[in-house]
DNA sequence: ACGCAGGTAGACAGATCCGTCTATCTACAC
DNA sequence: GTGTAGATAGACGGATCTGTCTACCTGCGT
């Protein structure tokens, strides 16, 4: 792990010439294992040795695909972010702006019920890497900003008077909800949901077409 | 660091017979250094070697006071929690229940402006130790529950119809605000504060004597 | 038939980290 | 003065972690 100082200026996922890393059975296995272990146990708490062992992969193979543990961390976060972005865009295009806000809110309501819930990937990672210039932090910041912008867009499209500030507040609320839930569970979904929608549905906005 | 399994059943701060640890210049220095380093750099990222060096203390002295790094972590959290509890009780006794809620909200508004702000001690620690049975997690859970209960008391005293659920929601909001602020800063204090007080001041509650 | 890219197994090096131990020194109470 | 509790400096051991390296194998396209 890089000691928060010498971080390669660009820690891009792929090593080869054009675009993202080429596919490879071994690479996919590593990424899947890392995802499971990093999310469930924390990044710093999982050594590359363990990832290698549970990926059923040779040591050299691992380091060929990910020259550094940091590379793996970034690739892991990037793949998660990618999946999230794809899903959110699909929801937006198929169900419209209000569904986007519902989808973000759902991250709190539905996900935590699943077994092995441990909060949000990105928030946890940010807490583990205190140096804001760490490559992993960059990915986190970028992803949160992207989500916030999409929420802002959706609010604007719904005619909300202060989309940017409200998106910031909603992301804040979601962040707190997901952290608090991962810490001590969530008793009262109702109050949270009422607050959420009362912030979205200020006077002057159309009646909700969803839910 | 204990590997999330063998954790002493009771990791009490002091080693001596009665009550908490006895005072000692060396002990205080260690605790102060640990506080600074743990908060600023993260617990897992700071080795005992560094704490020892910057505390200007002999290695043996360190391990006499804190037989294990985990002991130090717990002592550190406990001291922070103690300070918080003392302050909150003072505010409550001197300024009443509404001031309690203002004080909790202030943790978001004022603290983040200070240099070296890195969010909430307890939230960050919880993110670093994924095992909920880790002694450090116990301290975090206990402290959050205590704060929540005091908020609930305050709301009840103010005549709020659903003090418990609202306390849960407010703590959630504060959690999100402090995490989001430590990640990307806080642009709009107004929206957050309006939301906060609109949750406190439901119809049927007296006009605010504070602020 | 040949070359080569990608995979494998495991030894190895250097750093770091946690915790123990010995031997010595100091300050203070009795 | 003497004993004891607390502090000190620093060596040491074992574990763990990241990353390198050698030597070998396999499958495939040409």
TrEMBL record, chains A, B:
Q: Where is this region: Disordered?
A: 1-25
* DNA-binding region per UniProt: 47-66
Q: Which residues form the HTH tetR-type domain?
A: 24-84
What start-end ranges are recorded for coiled-coil regions in this protein? none
**Keywords of this protein's UniProt record, alphabetized?**
DNA-binding
Return the Low complexity bias intervals. Answer: 14-24
- Alphabetical list of InterPro entries matching this protein: Homeodomain-like_sf, HTH-type_TetR-like_transc_reg, HTH_TetR, Tet_transcr_reg_TetR-rel_C_sf
- Name this protein carries in UniProt: TetR/AcrR family transcriptional regulator
């Amino acid at each position: 792990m890089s000691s928060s100082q010498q971080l390669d200026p660009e820690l891009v996922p792929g090593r080869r010439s054009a675009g993202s890393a080429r596919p490879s059975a071994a690479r996919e296995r590593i990424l899947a294992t890392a995802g499971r272990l990093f999310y469930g146990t924390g990044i710093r708490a999982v050594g590359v040795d363990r990832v290698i062992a549970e990926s059923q992969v040779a040591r050299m193979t691992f380091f060929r695909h990910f020259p550094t543990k940091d590379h793996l961390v970034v690739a892991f976060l990037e793949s998660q972010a990618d999946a999230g972005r794809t899903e959110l865009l699909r929801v937006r295009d198929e169900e419209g702006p209000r569904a986007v806000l519902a989808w973000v809110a759902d991250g709190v309501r539905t996900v935590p019920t699943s077994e092995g819930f441990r909060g949000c990937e990105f928030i946890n990672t940010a807490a583990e890497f205190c140096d804001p210039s760490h490559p992993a932090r960059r990915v986190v910041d970028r992803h949160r900003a992207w989500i916030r912008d999409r929420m802002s867009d959706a609010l604007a499209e719904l005619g909300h008077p202060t989309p940017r500030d409200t998106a910031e507040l909603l992301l804040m609320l979601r962040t707190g909800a997901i952290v608090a839930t991962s810490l001590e569970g969530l008793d009262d979904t109702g109050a949270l949901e009422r607050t959420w929608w009362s912030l979205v549905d200020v006077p002057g906005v159309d009646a909700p077409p969803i839910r």
